[in-house]
Request: fold
Amino acid sequence: MRSTWRLLPIALGLVVPGVAGAQGKAGVCSLLTVKELADAVGMAVDEGKENNTVIPSGPSKGETMRGCMWRVGDRSAVSISMIAARGSSSDKAAAVARLNQVFDRLKAKGWTRQRESFGSYACSLMTPPSTEPSMPNMTGCMGEAKGQGISVGFSSGTTKLPIGKVKTLFDKATARID
Reply:
């Protein structure tokens, strides 16, 4: 259960089938600045580190999703994951249903979920039960923009970040996708 917060970027690969998206030579970390992140989370943020994740299952199995992770303090992080949006609307609907099953399983274990939709994307704030003090709070937005499936998320063992803060980061990142 400790790695649950890492599930959200992988879930993007389930929701938005396709091959890894290109973000120019600057990479995915160029979609947000350290200052923008620090302003949003209210803490110092380290430089981002590019990463790639091979999708383990679903329609994009074996494809590589590009990402960036910024460390925030000792127990927090901001991440972006991006993959080219491909697949039929029924593929995407089935993937969203699978993602909702993940949320349902967490809810059955005592997690709470606040959710807001914004047109082509949705954001959630997931809070672990008090019986899981080592699990982080997670706030993330996931959707499609400019032909890319993208997620922006914040996880923290000490801080709950309101949906509006991550929505602002999501909007800035998607505006910079070329």
User: Anything to note?
Assistant: The chain has one domain: 4-175. Helices lie at 7-15, 34-41, 89-108, 163-175. The longest helix spans residues 89-108.
